[in-house]
Amino acid sequence: MAVAELAPPGAADSASDHPVLQTALVTAEPPRWANARLTSRERQVIQLLAQGLSTKQIGAQLVISPGTVRSHLDHVMAKFDLHSRVQVVAWATQT
User: Fold this and answer.
1) What pLDDT digit, counting tens, does each position of 32-62 carry?
2) How far is CA 57 from CA 4, 40, 89, 91, in A?
3) Where in the sequence is the domain holding 46, given as residue range(s)?
4) How far apart are CA 58 and CA 75, in angstroms?
5) 60 is a domain residue
6) pTM, to two decimals
């Protein structure tokens, strides 16, 4: 949701206008995997997986085969000693 959707009418239009949100913007950490040793395609696959897309849906969105999606997920799991898609999403969403 955008800040404007959460704020009452007449409230600040951007997060930078609100001191509490401004502090949150400064202190917010990037996702755990943002600086990990992942390829850009592996990051894209993780993002779509975390959104709940299936292997087939991820492949269609990225214009790659489901087998290639599985290969990217296998590489991520091997790099970080993860054993399931659920663990990949849990690992990626931890802060």
Assistant:
1) 555 568 999 999 999 999 999 999 999 999 9
2) 31, 18, 16, 21
3) 40-93
4) 16
5) yes
6) 0.63
